[in-house]
Amino acid sequence: SAASDVYKRQPTVWPILECDRQAHYTLHVMNEQIDAGPIIDDIKVDIDERDTGYTLYGRLKERLPELLELNLVSIIEGKYKSFEQDNSIARYFSNELPNNGYIDCCWSVKRIERFIRALSSPDHPGALLNLDGEVLEVQETLSLDLSENDFGKCGLIKQKNNEVSIYSRDGIIR
């Protein structure tokens, strides 16, 4: 069964940021608005705790032929079944990224880690970090520490060699 509670923009970024268990691509009837037509079918993939926006996109893209194969004949014959989207449960997000793509060092460690994973891609800029006026691109995290921060250092960023430590409100992320 197809879902109408899917994201209307950036369907591989927002599910990671929002701690969803699955990501979806939908096949729907086209109308005058983007992503607004009745839903014919969808594909879903489980989100792994190591998934990035890029890996999630790749796994969804691999399933697209299956979605088309299951529905192509009924679409060509005009015998497909569809249902109207339930906009009361659909989740709409701006095409803009939270905080314009910049890490907010006062977010929780887990939020920062998800943000970095969601934006990680060899094809697009990753999460951005402002370090004393210099913008750094962050593509991965090495470790999360929920015990070290004394909670008085929110927003502190330390750099040693090529490793950056971000002191968030509830720990340290490297």
Name the helix and strand elements from N-terminus to C-terminus, one letter apiece. Answer: HEEHHEEEEEE
- Strand fraction equals 15-25%
Number of helices: 3
Quickly give the structural class.
Answer: alpha+beta
Helical residue percent?
A: 10-25%
User: Order of strands side by side in the largest beta sheet?
Assistant: 5-8-7-6
Mean pLDDT: 86
Unreliable residue stretches? none
Report the span from N to C terminus.
41 Å
Shape: elongated
Question: Rounded to an integer, what's the Rg over CA atoms?
Answer: 19 Å
Assembly form of the protein? single chain
Description:
There is one protein chain. This protein is of the alpha+beta class and 174 residues long. It contains 3 helices and 8 strands, in the order H-E-E-H-H-E-E-E-E-E-E. The protein has helices spanning 14-17, 53-76, 109-119; strands at residues 22-28, 39-46, 127-131, 134-138, 144-145, 157-160, 163-167, 172-173. Strands 5-8-7-6 form a 4-stranded antiparallel beta sheet, with helices on one face. A two-stranded antiparallel sheet has the order 1-2. The protein has a two-stranded antiparallel ribbon with strand order 3-4. It is elongated. The termini are far apart. The model has no long low-confidence stretch (mean pLDDT 86).
Characteristic terms for this protein:
single chain; 174 residues; alpha+beta; four-stranded antiparallel β-sheet; two-stranded antiparallel ribbon; 3 helices; elongated
Short recap of the structure:
The protein has 174 residues and is an alpha+beta fold. The chain is built from three helices and eight strands, in the order αββααββββββ. The longest helix has 24 residues, at 53-76.
